[in-house]
Design goal:
2 strands, 54% helix, 5 helices, two-stranded antiparallel sheet
Length: 134
């Protein structure tokens, strides 16, 4: 059982590193050939599990984007063939997702207190907000 827990922690750490470092799928495949890294489908499954958990815990609202959408014709074989992912993408065209900072903090703060990262009335939480702004 401990081996399974350690393996899941390793997979989650890889997912976190991929997201933080903006490592492309192709770059990860190259690394996985050299090092003993989890297979791409395991990473994808873990990322989907994390996204599903976050979706339950921190509400995301969709907003319409005012930009017109232009489609390029597909000339080669598609990289994505999973019908669930394709449907999700088609439903998301012209939409942007947003989460309220208060919802995020209502999730993070109790978790950090429980883990001993934040100590009420003694710790200071610094927040860095990043993203692309038009």
């Amino acid at each position: 059982m401990l081996g399974k827990i350690e393996e899941m922690k390793k997979i989650e750490a890889v997912v976190k590193s991929l997201d933080r470092g903006h490592i492309s799928r192709e770059a990860y495949r190259s690394l996985a050939r050299i090092e003993d890294l989890p297979r791409e489908n395991v990473i994808c499954d873990c990322r989907q599990k994390i996204n599903a958990e976050m979706k339950k815990k921190v509400l995301m609202t969709l907003v319409d984007l005012l930009q017109p959408t232009a489609f390029e014709p597909i000339t080669g074989n598609p990289d994505i063939t999973d019908s669930t992912i394709i449907m999700n993408m088609l439903e998301s065209i012209g939409k942007g997702g947003q989460r309220r900072i208060t919802d995020i903090l209502n999730y993070i703060i109790p978790l950090y207190i429980e883990k001993g990262i934040l100590i009420p009335r003694r710790s200071t939480l610094y927040i860095r907000i990043s993203g692309r702004w038009s």
